[in-house]
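Bumping with the actual sequence this time:
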Amino acid sequence: MVERRLQRADAQQELGSASFAYTVQPGDTLAKIAQTYLGDRYRFYILAKYNSIANPSRLLGGQVIRIPGQAPKPVAAAPPRPQETTPPHAEPPTSPRRKEAERFHAEGLKQLGGGNLESAYEAFNSAANRDPTFEAAQQQREAARRELVTRYQREANTAFQRQELDGAIRKWDQVLALEPDNDVARLRKAQALDLKEKLQKLPSK
C-alpha cells in the first residue's frame, strides 16, 4: 500500500522543490539513498519520480541526481593542537590523461541521459582506455556494454524470424564486436549465413 501511494504521489508536492545535487557512488541504490537522506528506504519510488528515472534499478556510479531538502553540513575537522605544525597538504595535480578521461566520461553521462546508449558506450570506452584507473568509467562502460549486447541479441533474433538475414547477421556482428567469446552469437550468425546461402541457390521465378 505504501509503495502504491508513493507511485501515485506527485514528487514535487511530496518532497518539496528545495534540493541538492548528489553524485551516485559505486554500489549505491535508490533505496540506500532514500534511507540515508529521506529516512525510509521504501521512498525510493518517489525519489525516482523526483529525478524522472523511469527504471529505479538503473543507477550508475557517477550519475548526478537531486536529493530533496537541504544538503547536510560537512563535519568540521578538529583544529590541530598548538604544538603541532602540519604542513599544508597539496593535492596531486590531475594528469592530462585523467582530464581527458573525465571529459569523455562527462560526455558519456550526457549521452546516457539523452537515451543514446551506443554513443554513451563509446564515450565511456574512450574514458576507460585513457585512464584504466578511472573506476566510474570502467563500471559504466561495462553496464552499457551489457545492455547493448542484450539489445543487439533481441534485434538479431527478431530480424532472423522475419528472414531479414542481412540485418540479423549485422546485429550478430555487433554482439561479437562487444563479446568476441559469445558462442551463441557465433552459432546464430552461422545459421543466418547458411540460410542466406541456401536461399540464394534457389532458382528464381
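The C-alpha cells above came from a reply further down the thread. DSSP finds nine helices and two strands in the chain.
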